[in-house]
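Operator note (shift B, R.M.): manual run for Peptidase M55 requested after the automated queue skipped it. Running by hand, logging everything below so the morning shift can see what happened. Input copied straight from the record, untouched. If output looks odd, do not overwrite the archive copy; leave it for review.
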Amino acid sequence: MRVYISVDMEGVTGLVGADDVQMGGRDYERGRVMMTEDVNAAVRGALAAGADSVLVNDCHSSMRNLLADEIHPEAELVRGRPKPMSMVQDLDDGFGTMLCVGYHARAGALGVLSHSFMGHEIEDMWLDGRPMGEIGFAHATATALGVPVVMLSGDDVACAEAAEWDPDVVTAPVKYARDRFAARLLPAAEARKLIEEAAAEGVRRAAKAPRPARDTVPRTLAVRWQSASVASQLEGIPGVTRRDDRTVEVTGEVPALFRLFGVFSGVAYSVTGQAPYC
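Run finished. Output pasted below as returned.
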């Protein structure tokens, strides 16, 4: 079985603040080490459960966070940006399953470094009326491609969000949120043991369970922005309409919506210039 691992940074073991996860932050270099070690734990678990190959996608910020020379020698790495499909770049129906490492809760949740793709700029997102953030959108895109998402690591709030989205996802809570920039941390060795065990269990489940059918049904993505200027600019994209001054929506197949959302984000950054977590 080919295993795909999508890796964010905010949900990584030990990390709680912007300086831990932003390039140039005083603790960012240590954060990169922690991120790489969490990923390697997931790779070990996947291989122990019978994975034939593993592809890791670094999908946080610059997408150049993982230490390429320290990644498990049996895993390939997708690194750098721009990537048209961002968090699911190079994912296709040839993979048997997808694992999510270091994920965080959606905007508005009281989770560690919680947000949805862009700092404060995105207030809410919905897929067919169902509230979602990065966890839900990545999950919906993978399953639309026929690839089950079977494991997620992050703080307890992210793990609860994943379980609410899909109760079959095996979760590994590596820290417990006390506020948006504070958490009770598991010892690093214990956290990585949880990740390794959850990854192995997820891969074993995927090997036994029927794969989800590809989803080609058109879905509606809606995004509520902090700035009405962003919504106004996005209305110029064919197929995009405004529900109100700050909310846009568009309908299509989920993988296409995920790629289009990347265009939305690019427009929003150009209009607002807002950095994450401000």
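Quick read of the result: The helical segments are 18-21, 28-48, 134-144, 156-165, 188-208, 228-234, 254-272. The longest helix spans residues 28-48.
Leaving this for review. - R.M.
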